[in-house]
Design goal:
mainly alpha
Length: 147
């Protein structure tokens, strides 16, 4: 299973990210490419614990639904997201892309106990689950822009 903790998987995401341009049209959803990169960077900040996002009391927090969504099902299109992850305006394109790559590397360098205490939709997650979900989230948005 692909994960942000695997160097090759992370490098693949970074290469795909570098192929997206600021003016790339989305295949679905409301975000443009700069908004997508800012959103993904803020999602990584959330995982790092540097961007607080309040927890939601959802059925996705509990097994077996949590495991099915994290490990088995593809990331669905147009899923609602926490407002904290879509409110920041994107800055300069190249700076935003470089920052997302830097954040991915920072996340990969963290020990399991240095990740956010909870995911807002999935609650407490294992180190493995954070890596798999992080990969799936970035992959989802790169596919959104044809990469």
């Amino acid at each position: 299973m692909k994960s942000l903790w695997q160097v090759g998987d992370r490098q693949e995401l970074m290469e795909r990210l570098r192929r997206v341009g600021a003016d790339h049209p989305a295949r679905w959803g409301k975000m443009d490419a700069p908004q997508m990169v800012a959103h993904c960077a803020d999602a990584v900040r959330m995982a790092l614990g540097t961007l607080p996002v309040p927890s939601k009391r959802l059925p996705t927090r509990y097994p077996p639904l949590k495991q099915i969504l994290v490990y088995l099902l593809p990331f669905p299109k147009s899923v609602p997201t926490a407002p904290e992850l879509i409110q920041r305006r994107a800055g300069d394109w190249n700076t935003e892309v470089a920052e997302l790559i830097r954040l991915m590397e920072e996340l990969a360098a963290r020990r399991p106990n240095e990740l956010a205490p909870e995911h807002p939709a999935f609650g407490t997650m294992s180190h493995n689950a954070w890596g798999v979900l992080g990969y799936k989230h970035l992959d989802h948005h790169l596919r959104q822009f044809g990469k």
